[in-house]
């Protein structure tokens, strides 16, 4: 087909938020790394932090400021308990929230876990020209988010639209006219 688009690999950082796991036991982070690299994207960075709002927001800000990071995927800390602060940390740095991401994640998740999907607060947003997505801490939820949403939206070839095609314009409000 003459109008076929070429794949554009993105540089994706993965952050796991957990008080109880180290990188050696990080199955959710491993799931995301495996899926993003299998799709042809590059792992830009990887880290694991405890459930600490300031530390999470700080790492997000570091990666937002890094021109070598296009997308940040975090896993863990999106639930309802007192220690779950990842969503709040993400919202501390968002310039714009991608409201429909959480809704679509719930729809995808309901097909697998039914009404238990209501307990997730998965979220997405944009800051400094970088996409940020907070996913639940289970490998299944990470698979669902990647396979059901992110694989297509982070692929420039996906039609009718995708996140990649507007990536160069995310920070246009910061440029002088």
Described by strand count, sense and barrel closure, the largest sheet is: 6 strands, mixed
Strand ordering within the main sheet: 2-1-3-6-5-4
What is the CATH architecture annotation?
3-Layer(aba) Sandwich
Order of helices and strands: EHEHEHEHEEHH
Instruction: State the separation between the terminal residues, measured CA to CA.
Output: 37 Å
How would you state the average pLDDT, rounded?
A: 94
Poorly predicted segments: none
Structural shape: globular
Query: Helicity, in percent?
Result: 25-40%
Please tag this protein with its features.
6-stranded mixed β-sheet, 177 residues, 19% strand, Molybdenum Cofactor Biosythetic Enzyme, Chain A, globular, alpha/beta, 38% helix
Describe the structure.
This protein has 177 residues and is of the alpha/beta class. The protein has a single domain, classed as Molybdenum Cofactor Biosythetic Enzyme, Chain A, CATH 3.40.980. It contains 6 helices and 6 strands. It has helices at 27-38, 53-65, 86-93, 99-113, 139-153, 163-166, and strands at 11-17, 42-49, 71-75, 96-97, 123-127, 130-135. The radius of gyration is 16 Å and the shape is globular.
Quickly describe the structure:
The chain has 177 residues and is α/β, with parallel strands linked by helices. Helix content is 38%, strand content 19%.
